[in-house]
Amino acid sequence: MHAFDVLGDPVRRRILELLADGEKTSGAVCAVIQEEFGISQPAVSQHLRVLRDGGFATVRPEGTRRLYAVNSAPLREVDEWLGRFRRYWTPHLDALATELARGRRERRRQPQEEEQ
To answer: HTH arsR-type domain: from which residue to which, for each copy (predicted)?
Structure first.
């Protein structure tokens, strides 16, 4: 399965977001996903399996629990592919950063000017 086929599903993207914060049990992932998406535990397990089979997540047993974590290798491949397109948004983000910095400088100057 292609990386974007795996990442194209909002449930799987949300699971990866949860796992990005650190290793989680399948039960913890399932509880959040069931609440947010209203899907069954077997459906969440299927999404976890797709992530695992696609290489985006790893699982390790700990007693009776299964702990899931992000595997960053496929994400690096996606990042490399997106690299060809960064030139379209990077200048805009750089310009935004410049404007934000300019606004912060102006706000810092205002109290000084009011005191004089």
So the answer is: 1-108
